[in-house]
Amino acid sequence: MQKVLVWDWPIRMLHWSMVLLFTGLIITGKGDGDNMNWHFYMGYGLSAVIVARILYGFLGSDFAKFKQFIYHPIEIIQYSKALLLGRGKAYLGHNPVGGIMVIVLLLAMTAQWVTGLFTSDEIFWFGPFYGSVSEELSATLGSVHHTLPNVLLALVALHILAVLYHELRFKERLVAAMLHGKKKHPTKLEKHASTPRVGVLLSLGGALAWLVWLWNIPV
Description:
Radius of gyration: 19 Å
Helix content: 55-70%
Keywords: Cell membrane, Membrane, Transmembrane, Transmembrane helix
Membrane topology: Multi-pass membrane protein
Number of helices: 8
CATH architecture: Up-down Bundle
Shape: globular
Number of strands: 2
Mean pLDDT: 90
Pfam families: Ni_hydr_CYTB
Transmembrane segments: 12-29, 41-59, 97-118, 147-165, 198-217
Order of helices and strands: EHHHHHHHEH
Low-confidence stretches: none
Number of domains: 1
Subcellular location: Cell membrane
Distance between the termini: 56 Å
Largest sheet: 2 strands, antiparallel
Strand order of the largest sheet: 1-2
CATH class: Mainly Alpha
C-alpha cells in the first residue's frame, strides 16, 4: 500500500471551513437571537467558501474537479447496491455515492445562503437584498431559509453515517485523509493531486471579490 495525495490543501481548508461555519450558523440560527450579527457574518463567510469551492471544482486539482466525481446514474445505482451488500470497489477520489452527496450538499447550502440574502430577523438585521423583492417573496424565501437547516442537518447526518460506514466496514480512513490529504492505494500511481497555483488564486480571489462586493452592498 502506498499513500497517495488526493485532497490538496485548498480542498481540506475549504472543507473544514464549511464544517465550522455551518456549525456556527446552526448554533446562532437556532438560538435566542442574541448572536444574530454573527449569524449574518458567518453566512457571508459560508457563501464565500462555497463560491471558492465551486470555482475550484472547475479550476482545481484533479480529484477536486466535479468532472472527476460526477458519475452516470446507472453507476451510482450499481455502486449503491454493492455498498448495501458490504461490497464496492475502492475509489481514490469520491465514489459515486460520495460524489452525488457533495453536489447535493453544495446545492442545499447554496440555497440556504442565497435565501438568507433576502431575509431579515425583522428587528435589526436585514439581508442585503431584502428590500429588492416584494414582501410576499421575501416571506417565502424566509420560510425556505428557516426550513432548509433541518434538511441540511439530515444530509450532514447521512454524510457522517456514510463516512463511519466506510471507516468501520472497509477500513477506509476518510476522516484522516481529510486531515492530511493522503489515502492508501494498492498499486503504484504516477498521478498525485497537484495544486494549481492559478486555480487557487482565481478561486480564492473570486471568493474574496464576492465577499467584498457583498459586504459593501448598502442595506
